[in-house]
Amino acid sequence: MSTAAPTSTPERILLRLDWQVIRRLDGLLQGDYRSLFYGYGIDFADLREYQPEDDIRYIDWNVTARMDTPYVRQYVEDREITAWFLLDLTPSMDFGTIQNIKRAVLVDFVTTLARLLTRHGNQVGALFYGSQVEHTIPARGGRTQVLRLINDLLKHSPSRQTTFTDLTPLLLAGLHILKKRSLVFLISDFISAPGWERPLRLLSQRHELLAVRLWDPREVELPDIGPVMMEDAETGEQLYVDTHDKQFRLRFREAAQRREATFNEMCRRAGVDVLSLSTEEDLVRALVRFTTLRQQRRK
To answer: Is the pLDDT of residue 46 over 90?
Structure first.
């Protein structure tokens, strides 16, 4: 995957992605992004009883409790979409190789989606989360808004934390700040302290929520490179390990697999679709794959 170099300017990043990603997506999807943004930008229209094929995210729990039978909300599509990016910008996002780090992949993904949305008259905004929600970009449209997003992302400096990342404040901020039903991209590596399943579920009930999980292969499978000093990017804690040890590498892989399984199960229970994006994956292929999966889910 091509990623943003430290010296890149917002204009250069947008131009590169226009040519290398968006033009390819236009060709592959033929301009039809309905499957990617399916159900977004919608207003409430009516209520009806739940059917087995209905999306559980549209269940109206208040009406369901009163009627003692499940009811779902029906919507009609709006012409315009308001999209928000909830961005985990904690130090762990700087993990990866010199060519590919998660933060650079995040910049490319946000730029691509913001460009696709705003060129059709939609609005985009963002919440930046470090040790807390540090910055808000109000939702606006146009190319200038995309450039502002890129510029603010490039200027953001992660601060060293004394505790493990906790996504709960970011999700609660989304619940508080986002008033109108919106398309929400929650973008993180989801290496977080537990306890954020309830705000995730609440956010998915109020908005159309997609979880974008950024990961690097070396977070899942340790290479056999001998003794190394590993450092927690967020707390600075250091640990000496011997990667020649097969049992250690096995335990490392199993822990990573359990973390991913727990995350996927949380999203499944909350009714949230997941796009898993590796630092070594082509962004166009990832988005086309995700669109295909969403099409299959709704058949």
So the answer is: no
pLDDT at 5: 47
* DSSP of the chain: -----TT--HHHHHHHHIIIIIHHHHHHHTT--TTTSTT-SEEEEEEEE--TTS-GGGB-HHHHHHHTS-EEEEEEE-SS-EEEEEEE-SGGGG-B-SS-BHHHHHHHHHHHHHHHHHTTT-EEEEEEESSSEEEEEEEE-SHHHHHHHHHHHHH--PPPPSS----HHHHHHHHHH--S--EEEEEE-----S--HHHHHHHHHHSEEEEEEEE-GGGTS-----EEEEE-TTT--EEEEETT-HHHHHHHHHHHHHHHHHHHHHHHHHT-EEEEEETTS-HHHHHHHHHHHHHHHT-
Q: Per-domain residue ranges for the chain?
A: 10-34+79-223+262-297, 42-77
Residue 8 pLDDT grade (very low, low, confident, very high; cuts 50, 70, 90): confident
CATH placement of domain 10-34+79-223+262-297:
3.40.50.410
Tens digit of pLDDT for each residue in 194-251?
Answer: 889 999 999 998 898 999 999 988 877 766 566 665 555 555 555 666 666 677 778 8
